[in-house]
Structure to design on (412 residues):
DNA sequence: TCTGGGGTCCTAGGACCC
DNA sequence: TCTGGGGTCCTAGGACCC
């Protein structure tokens, strides 16, 4: 039996949402991601800006050189999440099997929905019109028998189009496309394939499976499947809508200017650890492992992990261990560009285990949840552990001499 | 041109266990 | 004296995606 998979991809999502809030941006060159002289990269560019060679992942300063008249906006993640949620609700009306693959794209399993929504193309058209009517946003839709082909089809359909690849012609559809179009084939893999004289998916499909496997291992084998339009390998062959808990939760920060200031580093680490701890509690998860990420001025990056004797969701544990890892591994003669805190190896809340430490963990957990609620009401800086607080002010004063403690505006 | 932030998955070696 | 084979966990790094 053939599956019918839709891949719905929002067109220039961030830019389009920004236009809803500021119609003056319409039709202009818009770059979302930050100011034109900041460290950072482009999150999204309007079609107008793309004409000048601006695209996502491009350094902002480069984007400015290519397109100095573009309007640079910092971006509003809350707005994107909100609209993403709205789109999700619409998609749910078309199929119970919906999976948001990221904030601006989703897979739907539409197998067997003909009685309800009609043939695939008509269903897609209705879906497209409904999204437009309810959100004023454009999307593109790919329809195929696998996630892989549906995704590539939606890409080919852009902007604002619908493309269906009929069952049986997947390989013919893929054949003329560059290998880079295959999700998972990036710069490095593309180069490796080019070195073998493989430029198009047809070249890949013509190759012997064993050759690919001996050359690239399991990935090569998956690649051979993909060249034929199959959902081969890892994430892709999972059922749609069956994504469970996250596998990792992390936060990181790149400094405006690299720093050797231990106080600033510790304060940042505390802040990051608090954000991570908070999200662990929101998900009801405890982390077995935490990892510190450290990037020096020259962009060289190291990661150092610690595994806890028993999994934790407490800020203090994350703060303490991340500090130990920092001091054990940082070459303090070198300035740091980025710090990150990541957690993984999750276990679910299981209630009463923490009686073992005389209720210490339980009291901490309750205090932290109270703090989380205060942050919701009064903003991120309303509550902090002692040293995080002091350090935070220091950093703010350093980066903006006018900033004073206690002047943080209320959210909303 | 000087490279964000949040993720996923894979590899490869070593420890450790049976 | 010359040492297996498999499974699992841990760590570090890297490719890739949006």
């Amino acid at each position: 039996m053939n599956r019918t998979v839709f891949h719905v991809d929002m067109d220039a999502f961030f830019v389009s949402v920004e236009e809803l809030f500021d119609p003056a941006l319409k039709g202009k060159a818009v770059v979302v991601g930050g100011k034109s002289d900041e460290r950072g990269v482009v999150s999204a560019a309007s079609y107008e800006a793309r004409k000048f060679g601006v695209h996502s992942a491009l350094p902002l300063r480069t984007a400015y050189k290519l397109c100095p008249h573009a309007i640079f906006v910092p971006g509003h993640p809350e707005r994107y999440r909100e609209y993403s949620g709205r789109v999700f609700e619409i998609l749910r009306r078309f199929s119970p099997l919906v999976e948001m693959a990221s904030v601006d794209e989703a897979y739907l399993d539409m197998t067997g929905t003909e009685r309800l929504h009609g043939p695939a193309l008509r269903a897609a058209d209705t879906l497209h019109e409904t999204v437009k009517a309810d959100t004023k946003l454009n999307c593109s839709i790919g329809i195929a028998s696998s996630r892989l082909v549906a995704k590539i089809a939606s890409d080919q359909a852009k902007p604002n189009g619908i493309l269906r690849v009929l069952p049986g012609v997947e390989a013919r559809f893929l054949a003329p496309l560059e290998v880079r179009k295959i999700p998972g084939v990036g710069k490095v893999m593309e180069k490796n394939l080019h070195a073998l004289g493989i430029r198009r998916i047809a070249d890949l499909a013509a190759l012997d499976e064993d050759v690919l496997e001996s050359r690239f291992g399991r990935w090569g084998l998956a690649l051979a499947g993909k060249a034929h339009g199959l959902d081969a390998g890892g994430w892709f062959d999972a059922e749609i809508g069956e994504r469970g808990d996250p596998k990792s939760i992390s936060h990181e920060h790149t400094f405006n200017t690299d720093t050797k200031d231990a106080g600033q580093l510790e304060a940042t680490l505390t802040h990051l650890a608090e954000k991570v701890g908070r999200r662990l509690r929101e998900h009801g998860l405890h982390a077995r492992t935490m990892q510190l990420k450290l990037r020096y001025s020259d962009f060289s990056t190291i990661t150092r992990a610690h595994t806890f004797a028993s999994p934790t969701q407490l800020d203090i544990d994350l703060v303490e261990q991340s500090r130990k890892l920092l001091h054990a591994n940082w070459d303090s003669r070198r300035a740091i560009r980025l710090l990150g805190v990541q957690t993984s190896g999750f276990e679910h809340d299981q209630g009463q285990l923490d009686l073992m430490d005389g209720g210490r963990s339980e009291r901490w957990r309750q205090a932290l949840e109270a703090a989380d609620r205060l942050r919701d009401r009064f903003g991120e800086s309303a509550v902090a552990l002692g040293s995080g607080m002091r350090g935070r002010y220091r950093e703010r004063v350093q980066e903006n001499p006018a900033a004073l403690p206690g002047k943080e505006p209320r959210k909303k």
Chain A has three domains: 1-146, 172-226, 249-391.
